[in-house]
Design a protein that fits this description.
266 residues; alpha/beta; Rossmann fold; six-stranded parallel β-sheet; binds magnesium ion
Amino acid sequence: MVHLTLRGQPLGTAQPPADPARIAAVLFDKDGTMSQSEPMLLRLARARVEQCLALGVSHGLDDARLQQLLDLLARAYGLGTDGLHPAGTIAVAARDHNLISTATALVQVGLGWPEALALSEQAFASTDSLHGQGAPTPPQPTDGLANLLERLTAAGVRCAVISNDHQPGIQAFLRRHDLAKHFAGLWSADHLPRKPDPEAVHALCAELGVRPQSCALIGDANSDLHMARKAGVAVVLGYQDGWSQPVPLDPAFPQIHHWDELEVVD
Ligand SMILES: [Mg+2]
């Protein structure tokens, strides 16, 4: 086992730690942590808004209602002039939750629920190809990730993905960037329970044959960090380098601004 340092400071259960935690495995979130998803998600968010507005026109919405719909969708998705909100619906929530938030915006401009839901489904179906590894702008790894994974693998630390993307999306990302060789396990949206249930962490740890108390978990959402803490993970770290805007993470957790800040110490 190893211990980890962040900007030269040893990491443990408490900050500052009485003793550095001994780490056998590191669990990584994918979107916004291992992968820079923002360019792809921005394109997806803008396309969904455009589709909804076009469908709104064909459903007889007037200019005032269309403007209202644009504002509601932008706020629901976390779509601003300077990028995506890292804790917004498009950034964090699964497709089904985004669909419901879209239908809710359509209800607020006067559509009935069945119509709003059908229209949202239509808008999503016509923009789904912009998401995932087949997208025109597939996500790139965050800066310095491959190097950190090399160092962890060389030190005998097991790495795993814990993500609410589906298994094929996770595997395609790892294969595309030649990272699959570093990973001993994954927990996806196809596994039950999903994140942020602490049982997802326990089940992944059992698969890896490690205790949560011998693990680190790194993510870019407070839901990841609080899940890890509840699961008894020894080192819980927030990741800040996956978005153009600062991520509003709970300051109770140490935060990484670049993978090079993390050192693996034998
Ligand atoms: Mg994430």
